[in-house]
Structure formats: structure tokens, C-alpha cells
Amino acid sequence: MKAHEATYSGMIGWLKYGAVICFLLAFFVIWLIA
Question: How far apart are the C-alpha atoms of 34 and 28, rounded to whole Å?
């Protein structure tokens, strides 16, 4: 169970950063098109 919690915590952290990176990437693409 302990290992599972660590993996889950790591995944949440990566998802958070991934969401921010995706948002910035989308904003950049929209800025390029506009």
C-alpha cells in the first residue's frame, strides 16, 4: 500500500505539471495563429 501511495502521489504531481505545460503550449499556439 505504501508503494502505491508514493506512485499515486508522483502521478498527481506529474499531471499538475503536465496540465500547466499543456495550457502554456495551447496559449502559445493560439498566440502564433492570432
Answer: 10
Q: In angstroms, rounded to a whole number, what is the distance separating the alpha carbons of residues 7 and 26?
A: 28
Q: Quote the cell numbers at residue 11.
A: 502521478
Q: 1-34 pLDDT, tens per residue?
A: 778 888 888 899 999 999 999 999 999 999 999 8
Consecutive H or E run containing 5? helix 2-33
SS3 content of the chain, % helix, strand, coil (to 5): 95, 0, 5
